[in-house]
């Protein structure tokens, strides 16, 4: 099969289109003919070699943890899926080697959800990792009816879904940080936009009045945004960061590491099919142009998601 792979870690140019053996299928896995693969910041972090202490990596390594496609074959233990089914998945496995930037990918059946016919493959591939992160981070801190929620990087892959899911979970108000060019976009998702940077704490106080504090913070940025959030949240137990791991815990803040979850993926994609969750895809690239997609994403200002089409 054709796949985008690397044999050494480094910048985007270590990726190249290669002819590699088809992935072998385990007993509890589904082999998916990839139609589209979502591109996530974790893909360039894997590519750069930053995650080698967290998970075993093997080369040649095919990146990509988000997939939509059609089932070609199923492992001997799989009952829920059959060839021809249209699916999507957060396809992360314990070992990093056979990812979704390929014509075929093997996925544990516990991660697979059914793609509704009204949701296209590109949208479906953009959803799982970012959608699960958004949902699991909000649940981590018990987001629910009446909450005032602050979402950092509200125009980004995770943030634009978090804003909408927070509303779906009953949040009374959502405030989303973004640069001014994204404020209309963030407003259209159901959040009140504020500019990020040094003036953030004052801007939030002005928006809210009262003590200027929020009930829930989801930090998708870290650094300054994390520090400011410590002052903005009423109770640190209701703040989580998806980027500051040990630092978050040191400050009594939760951290969220998204886990594959078929049931939640199904809930998310059904919400999309029902017109209640909008997945913004800024741009698609053919598989062969994965290097370009990585360079755009690493620029740090994508609105919504990037997707590779296969
Ligand atoms: N723990 C986990 O399981 C997990 C899961 C998913 C992602 N992550 C991590 O979370 C981070 C965000 O992921 P993502 O997919 O949402 O990234 P992304 O889509 O690349 O984020 C891009 C967005 O960030 C905004 N942005 C840039 N600098 C900002 C700042 N200083 N303050 C506020 N917004 C800023 C940009 O908005 P403007 O253009 O308006 O500046 C842009 O819309 C990444 O580091 C990723 O690796 C972790």
From TrEMBL:
Q: Would the keyword Repeat turn up in this protein's UniProt record?
A: no
Cellular compartment(s) = Cytoplasm
- Any one GO molecular function term: oxidoreductase activity
User: Known CDD domains for this protein?
Assistant: MDR_like_2
| Stored InterPro entries | ADH-like_N, ER, GroES-like_sf, NAD(P)-bd_dom_sf, Quin_OxRdtase/zeta-crystal_CS, Zinc-ADH_QOR/CCCR
One GO cellular component assignment for this chain's record is: cytoplasm
Q: Which UniProt keywords apply?
A: Cytoplasm, NADP, RNA-binding
What are the residue boundaries of the Enoyl reductase (ER) domain, all occurrences included? 10-308
| Family annotation (Gene3D superfamilies) | Medium-chain alcohol dehydrogenases, catalytic domain, NAD(P)-binding Rossmann-like Domain
Q: State the source organism's domain of life.
A: Bacteria
Quaternary structure and interacting proteins, as annotated: Homotetramer.
Q: What is this protein called?
A: NADPH:quinone reductase
